[in-house]
Amino acid sequence: MKFIFRNKRSWYILLLAALSVAILLLWRERFVMDKVSPTAVFIEEHMTNPNGTLATYLKDAVSERADIVAGREALSESLGLWMQYALAMDDEPMFQKAYSQLQTYYVNRPDLYIAWKLDTQGKAHVATNALGDDLRIMGALLQAADRWEQGRAAKLATASALARTLTQRTEQRGYMVDFYDFEGRHSTNTLSLVYIDLLALKAMRDHQMLEPNAYERYFSVLHKMPDDGLFYPKSFDVMNEMYTYDTKVNLIDQLIVANHVMESGNRPDKLIAFLKKEFETRGQLPGQYERTTRTPAVNYESASVYGLTMLLAVRSGDEAWAKQLYKHMITLRGQDSRYPGGYVFDGNTHLFDNLFPLLGETALYNLLKK
Fold this sequence. Notes:
- The protein is mostly helical.
- Helix content is 52%, strand content 8%.
- The chain is built from 13 helices and 13 strands.
- The protein has helices at residues 2-32, 38-46, 76-88, 92-106, 131-147, 152-169, 198-206, 214-223, 251-263, 269-282, 303-315, 319-329, 352-369, and strands at 74-75, 107-108, 113-114, 117-118, 171-172, 175-176, 180-181, 186-187, 190-192, 235-237, 242-244, 248-250, 288-290.
- Strands 9-10-11 form a three-stranded antiparallel sheet, with no helix packed on it.
- A hairpin with a 4-residue loop joins strand 7 and strand 8 (186-187).
- The model is unreliable at 27-32 (pLDDT under 50).
């Protein structure tokens, strides 16, 4: 009887230990994927100017040239990414604040275009737009209008006016191009592939903000886009319809294009396989690669690379890989104790190195929540 009793007691102890481990693992998973990211708190507390615009850098600095961002200047890129975060969080008040920022500071009147850069006071000293930022913002506006009834008409009217400006002023040979100079009245012939935001373009098509067959042209550029066996081109010349490659590959650009490619119905399988192998072999993903040798061109890591790779993993249904990337990404976070939640190094950070990780983290959270 004593032998039987001891066996039962041992079995209960083992069962209790196993349950304790399981509960601990579940607790850790829940904590890691907490809904309110410390990165969002860092952005709101340390990367927001007094007027509410989002600062590009943590440290202040004087801009020496109008076409280069510096210090606490604000970018339309940041506004669009913050709008996407508000949508991912299903936070209507947050989105409404961002929309007010757009209307108050970014939309230039009477030309009705989005200035790509503002000073710390919210004034534009540039007369150009940035197509990728415009499409990101318009896609967010249309998504918000379709989701929330309050302010729907105003958001649709804003998106429609911005779309008219883009299609009437920036188109070359049937394609919107990277930018238009509203003072000099000229534009480029280049369409950067990172700017072909198919989700935004589809929303514009569905809301009759593009001419017939326009969406199909952009879709075709991505769908028929070549690669060099692994990496994608940098841009598309709309005049001769030729693709151009860079010698050094910026992984952020590659990942943005790869995420767009997913929306075209193709899977960037070669790039995904390469990134998985690199991450497994090196334990990290360097920010740039030499195109011909496929070897790292830099030693540094970029938090944006991990955020964008997480988005790609989530979109491709690879939850396990997304978790691995997340666990590594957050080892880069909070290394400066003055700025918990921020990806801060040497006392400074670029906002997109916090926004892209935030979007990747939120996409993973939403996936796990399902």
